[in-house]
Amino acid sequence: MAIEDRGLTRQPQGLVDILDKILDKGLVVAGDIKVSLANVELLTIQLRLVICSIDKAEAIGINWWRADRFYNAEAAKALPSPAEYDALKSRLDQLESQLNTRKGR
């Protein structure tokens, strides 16, 4: 069923057409929530929501899933091995003990 609008005929858009346009162009929703008491800000929450296709996200510089080990097997391989982890932990313990010794002086 066509819709008449000032002499122009428009076809109603379906959900698939709307979703295709959103994913192609992208949609950004931004907002801030601030909780204040007597002009003293107690809490600020900043919300940013980006809805777009992966191609569009990469075009605008968003690619966090490439480094996230949950989404990318290659990123999971980059984690330290148990031996490397133990060596790093012992080095950290050693540095902390040196720091505590210096504080004690």
The amount of beta strand, in percent, is 25-35%
Overall average residue pLDDT: 82
Report the sheet with the most strands, covering strand number, pairing sense and barrel closure.
2 strands, antiparallel
Structural class estimated from helices and strands: alpha+beta
Total number of strands? 4
Q: Name the overall outline.
A: flat
Kindly report how far apart the N and C termini lie.
85 Å
Give the low-pLDDT segments: none
Helix content: 40-55%
Determine the number of helices (DSSP H or I, runs of at least 4 residues).
Answer: 4
Strand line-up in the sheet with most strands: 1-2
Rounded to an integer in angstroms, the radius of gyration calculated over CA atoms is 26 Å
Oligomeric composition of the shown chains: single chain
Q: Name the helix and strand elements from N-terminus to C-terminus, one letter apiece.
A: EEHEEHHH
